Amino acid sequence: MRAVAPLFGRRARLRWLHLIIGGALLMPYFLVSTVLVGMASGGEQLLSSLPAQFVAFALALPMAAVTGFFALVRPLSVAAARALCGVPPALLADGPARTRQARVRAAGWYTLHLALGGIVSGITLALPPFAVTVAALPFFAGLRDTWLYGGPDALREPWALAFAPLAGLAMLVAMALVAAAAGELLARRAPALLGPTPEDRLAAAERRAADLAVRNRLARELHDSVGHALSAVTLQAGAARRVLDRDPEFVREALTAIEETTRRTVGELDSVLGLLRRDGEPDEGGEAAYGPGLDALDGLLAHCGVPVAYEREGDPGAPDNVDPAVSREAYRIVQEGLSNALRHGGGGPSPVRLLIAIRERELEIVVENPVGERPAVVRPGGGRGLRGIAERAVLLGGRTEAGPYDGGWRLTARLPLAAGRTTDGHAEEQR
Q1: 3-state SS of the chain?
Q2: Which residues form a coiled coil (predicted)?
Q3: In terms of C-beta density within 10 A (0-12 exposed, 13-18 middle, 19 or more buried), how is residue 79 classed?
Q4: pLDDT at 363 > cutoff 80
Q5: Contact 354, 309 (CB under 8 A)
Q6: Distance between CA 190 and CA 377 in Å, rounded?
Q7: Distance separating alpha carbons of residues 290 and 389, to the nearest angstrom
Q8: Between the CA of residue 90 and those of 70, 195, 349, what are the distances in Å?
Q9: What are the beta bridge partners of residue 399?
Q10: Exposed/middle/buried for 312, CB within 10 Å: 0-12, 13-18, 19+?
Q11: Rounded CA separation 188/197 (Å)
């Protein structure tokens, strides 16, 4: 069975069918060309002239090539090649042919498919009856009298008739070989003619980069929002548990802070999940669904779980002073800085110092916190907060710095007042 699989196996049969479809698609062009050739030859009977049929076949191929330039020819050809030629789907392009190079390749494939399909279809229609008739000559005298009438006497010899069945079988095998070779040729040329062009690859890379950027941004939003909330809730709950019997008022305040933090975080989480349900595209209100801005900073500071000494220069919450996109990213940077203070500050009485200043061309954010003696909570896989802060700043054209400072820790971020405005500098990740 393995010996005949290349000729009569499932893949060979599907490719043969693909070629037959190509022959059927060629027929309209062939019929038009037969009319043109007949008119040029003065009305000569075309079907009785084999050379005229070859001329009509050759004339039909340029017509097919012109049709192949239509954009939708490529997706239809790709679908047929994937289903019938056995070509791996990853090697073929998706979508209509938009560029000139893609259209030329698709036209070349379409013409090759129809040319080979016309040849194989003609052989498939004409050769089997002839081969069967040749194979049956030794067994039917009347058939011999009809077919061999006027032919060489040598064909009537017993030894010649003995080879007739083998000759008929050889014709059928030769037909299968031609069909298999044509199918293999199409399968080998499919990646070159129907595969993605450099423009297709560039467009696909741009789509992947855009999707990755959206996923990374959503991941940062989830990390900063949910991570901060969990850190604050964990520390507030732990502190309340320790003084549950001694200081009910503190426990009440801690529970209130937990309630406010979780309520705010659920709202932010709903916004991010709404973007995920819309495949990461902003809604009609723009990008505001990504999260709050600096105008919501007072609520964050009131329930962040650590005392904060807040200083500001200018009014960073006003949209006329700071671009809304910058304001949202600045809010997340402050939120992550406070989360770091919760995890690493040690719970001492010293407040976290927060400075937000509007300079001439940039927004400056400084978060300073003492480092406690108790070890920080280590998360599996390590923290990604400072990496996310640096990414946010770089995407806006800003820069960040983070590291030890006077026995504590300082995080500094400088962002342009308007999104997209670049400033000199670089981002560092040290924690």
Answers
A1: CCCCHHHHCHHHHHHHHHHHHHHHHHHHHHHHHHHHHHHHCCCCCCCCCHHHHHHHHHHHHHHHHHHCCCCCHHHHHHHHHHHHHCCCHHHCCCCCCCCHHHHHHHHHHHHHHHHHHHHHHHHHHHHHHHHHHHHHHHHCHHHHHHHCCCCCHHHHCHHHHHCHHHHHHHHHHHHHHHHHHHHHHHHHHHHHHHCCCHHHHHHHHHHHHHHHHHHHHHHHHHHHHHHHHHHHHHHHHHHHHHCCCCCHHHHHHHHHHHHHHHHHHHHHHHHHHHHHHCCCCCECCEHHHHCCCHHHHHHHHHCCCCCEEEEEECCCCCCCCCCHHHHHHHHHHHHHHHHHHHHHCCCCCCCEEEEEEECCCEEEEEEEEECCCCCCCCCCCCCCHHHHHHHHHHHHCCEEEEEEECCEEEEEEEEECCCCCCCCCCCCCCC
A2: none
A3: exposed
A4: yes
A5: yes
A6: 56
A7: 15
A8: 23, 9, 61
A9: 414
A10: middle
A11: 17
The structural domains of the chain, with segments of one domain joined by +, span 5-196, 203-416
pTM: 0.57
Structure tokens at 192: 């070159």
Quickly state the pLDDT bin for 420 (edges 50, 70, 90).
low
CA distance 332 to 415: 13
Cα atoms in the 13 Å half-sphere on the side-chain side of 306: 32
Residue with tokens 């671009």: 323
CATH topology of domain 203-416: Heat Shock Protein 90 (3.30.565)
- Please return the burial class of 380, using the count of CB atoms within 10 Å of its CB with bins 0-12, 13-18 and 19+: exposed
Q: How confident is the model at residue 110 (pLDDT cuts 50, 70, 90)?
A: very high
Residue-wise pLDDT tens digits, 125-148: 999 999 998 888 888 877 777 777
Segment 396-425 shows an average pLDDT of 77
pLDDT at 347 over 60: no
Q: What are phi and psi of 175, to 5 degrees?
A: -65, -45
